[in-house]
Design brief:
- By secondary structure, this protein is of the alpha+beta class.
- The protein folds into three domains: 4-300, DD-peptidase/beta-lactamase superfamily (Beta-lactamase); 310-453, STAS domain (Transcription Regulator spoIIAA); 461-606, Jelly Rolls, CATH 2.60.120.
- The chain has 20 helices and 20 strands.
- The protein has helices at residues 4-16, 66-78, 80-84, 114-123, 129-144, 152-161, 163-174, 182-193, 199-210, 225-238, 244-250, 287-300, 332-341, 356-369, 388-403, 417-425, 440-453, 476-485, 567-576, 578-606; strands at residues 40-45, 50-54, 60-61, 196-197, 255-257, 262-267, 271-276, 315-320, 345-354, 375-386, 407-411, 436-437, 487-491, 496-498, 507-513, 516-521, 527-533, 538-539, 553-556, 560-566.
- It has a five-stranded antiparallel sheet with strand order 2-1-7-6-5. Strands 8-9-10-11-12 form a five-stranded mixed sheet.
- Helix 19 packs across helix 20.
- The longest helix is centred in the C-terminal third of the chain and has 29 residues, at 578-606.
- The two termini are 37 Å apart.
């Protein structure tokens, strides 16, 4: 079944294709070569899904749509205070090529007119023009998601006819806005306007801004999050030149147009829009592009000041462990159980900036799902930030769900300190239920282990010493002798079995049934889960190599039954059967090598 969004865009394209008003841009001779019938529309969600129709992959030059992205790059390179002294943020009310400077300081009114854009280009980092252009190439490539190309003919045409822009550049030099040779900065400005893009590229650039500055497919951060709101602000007030006020009134989204026929529009936290049609109105904006954005805003309720169910956008997707199980290969009986119960594991993909209203919606949805759920995985990959009050609500809800035996764990927040900091700050110091995972695969594996341990005890879920990797290949009679010197102990759910730093006491633990987490302490008092173990596995085995203190904590996620072996008993038995110690050490070395290989593969995958 075709997406209703795709169907809508195709219908919109068909209806607007008969709109032939406007003229091709002629002040740059090369732009007159465009086909006036070209028309593409593309919408990209903040998680990278693209819906395109028409001439979405036709190349054209980006022109002034480069301005907000270069302004953002200047902010990232020089900082807001420095840039604001050279480029203002006030609407000019004038045409894009107006000489609109502050009468006292000489600073351009805003970065969306040519004067402000030329100044912004000069502020990009680099000691020479070549260095600045290399930085511009890298920045624009990050926004687009691929290496940029230039239309050399358009660049030469712009450079040969850009007399007014040359006058602007020299005026900026006169007022001390541009340091160094203004013509070098101007040539880089001409180059950035000559970058080749498609309608699809524009939509991904807009989606990168919608996604808090991170490209939704490559995952590359193109712009620090604190500067995204500044770029979107000047786009909203100045991005459509002297039509900006009417645009904000009628369409209500941050946007930018270019005389090449492109328009981008951004709905923060949700998606980016790219439209291309080269025939322009008297103000230099694409005629079809303006009309398409008006229709999209009206039909989808996208106006920034429209009252909508905005909190619902905080939750972009829900799916289950049956849709996305872990990559491990469980035993046949465990796989059968998983086939029956994996849908009780729920992934919730959270999205955008999480405030109190959005968090209330998420928790309400979790409450609705709780009766049929065993675990919730909160995928934070697309979250750009979280308020302290929202983090507090989430931690309180997590504890409440835990009391009802529904686990709530976090996934993919380790590289986002802006998320970890408020979540850990609002968690109690004795709250050992705060579990986060590097990726969804580790998270769902932990949830699957917890699901397995929920099953009533049956023989196939209970393991003996012979199932442990430490006793692999050992004669059965010798294993029986070891079992005879071991003893059993049970641990309640939530009980700490081992604690980091305590004396090792010479004990090795073999899990007969249940599930434990291996945790290491963090500086802020929280714990990081590094592994989960189930029946047939062992922990504490480093005492065989002389370890005297525990280097990790072990937490009983469920009721756990262990066989415990004292190292002194192993040594005593080894005097009678030397093969025991030899086999144990060989198997320990093999097990450690296997774990090291998996860790190396995991690190390589992250890199």
């Amino acid at each position: 079944m075709q997406s209703p969004i795709q169907t809508y865009l195709e219908k919109l394209h068909s209806e607007l294709a008969d709109l032939h008003d406007g003229e091709l841009a002629s002040y740059i001779p090369e732009l007159t070569k465009a086909d006036p019938d070209w028309f593409g529309i593309c919408l990209v969600t903040a998680d990278g899904m693209a819906y395109c129709t028409g001439d979405a992959d036709q190349s054209f030059t980006i022109q002034s749509i480069s301005k907000p992205f270069i302004y953002g790059t200047a902010l990232a390179d020089r900082g807001q205070d420095f840039v604001s002294r050279r480029v203002g943020v006030e609407p000019s009310g004038d045409a894009f090529n107006s000489i609109s400077l502050d009468p006292k300081t000489g600073a351009p009114r805003n970065p969306m007119i040519n004067a402000g854009a030329i100044a912004s280009t000069s502020l990009v980092s680099g000691t020479a023009a070549e260095d600045q252009w290399a930085r511009i190439e890298d920045a624009m490539s990050a926004f687009i998601g691929k290496r940029i190309r230039l239309d050399e003919d358009v660049y030469r045409s712009e450079s040969a006819t850009g007399f007014r822009n040359r006058a602007i550049a020299w005026m900026l030099k006169n007022f001390g806005i541009i340091d160094g040779d203004p013509m070098a900065s101007l040539e880089n400005y001409f180059r950035q306007c000559s970058i080749l893009v498609s309608c699809r590229d524009l939509a991904y650039m807009a989606a990168t801004l919608a996604n808090g500055g991170v490209h939704p497919v490559s995952g590359v951060r193109a712009l620090p999050g604190e500067h995204v709101e500044r770029v979107l602000s000047v786009m909203a007030t100045c991005g459509m030149y002297d039509y900006a006020g009417s645009w904000l009134y009628e369409v209500g989204m941050p946007a930018k147009s270019g005389v090449g026929g492109g328009i981008i529009a951004v709905l923060p936290g949700r998606f980016g829009i790219g439209i291309f049609s080269p025939k322009l109105d008297s103000k230099g904006n694409s005629v079809r592009g303006i009309e398409a954005c008006k229709r999209l805003s009206r039909d989808f309720g996208l106006h920034a000041f429209t009252r909508t169910s905005q909190p619902a956008t905080a939750l972009s997707r829900i799916y289950t462990g049956a849709d996305a199980p872990s990559r491990r290969q469980p035993s046949a009986e465990l796989q059968a159980h998983l086939n029956q119960h994996a849908d009780r594991i729920k992934y919730l993909s959270l999205h955008g900036y999480l405030g109190v209203d959005g968090m209330e919606y998420i928790i309400r949805k979790m409450r609705d799902l709780a009766p049929e759920s065993h675990s919730f995985i909160l995928d934070m990959h697309q979250v750009t930030g979280i308020s302290l009050s929202a983090a507090r609500l989430l931690n309180e809800a997590r504890i409440s769900f835990g009391q009802e035996n529904v686990a709530v764990v976090f996934s993919r927040i380790h590289s986002h300190p802006e998320l970890l900091a408020p979540l850990r700050k609002t968690a109690k110091r004795d709250d050992h239920g705060f579990l986060s995972f590097e990726d969804n695969d580790l998270a769902v594996e932990w949830c699957e282990n917890r699901l397995f341990c929920e099953v009533p005890k049956t023989p196939q879920f209970s393991r003996s010493l012979s199932d442990s990797p430490l006793f692999e290949g050992m004669p059965s009679d010798l294993v029986s002798e070891v079992e005879a010197i071991s003893y059993s102990r049970s641990f309640a759910p939530g009980e700490w079995i081992l604690v980091t730093g305590q004396p090792a006491d010479g004990q090795v633990f073999f899990i007969e049934s249940g599930h434990v987490s291996i945790l290491v302490p963090l500086e802020d008092g929280a714990h990081q889960r590094i592994a989960s173990l189930g029946s047939g596995m062992n922990f504490g085995e480093m005492v065989l190599l002389g370890q005297t203190k525990r280097t990790a904590s072990v937490f009983a996620d469920t009721e756990v039954h262990c066989r415990i072996l004292e190292i002194r008993e192993i040594n005593r038995l080894s005097e009678e059967a030397p093969l025991l110690k030899i086999a144990l050490l060989e198997n320990l070395a093999r097990d450690m090598a296997s774990k090291l290989r998996r860790a190396t593969q995991w690190i390589s995958a992250l890199a």
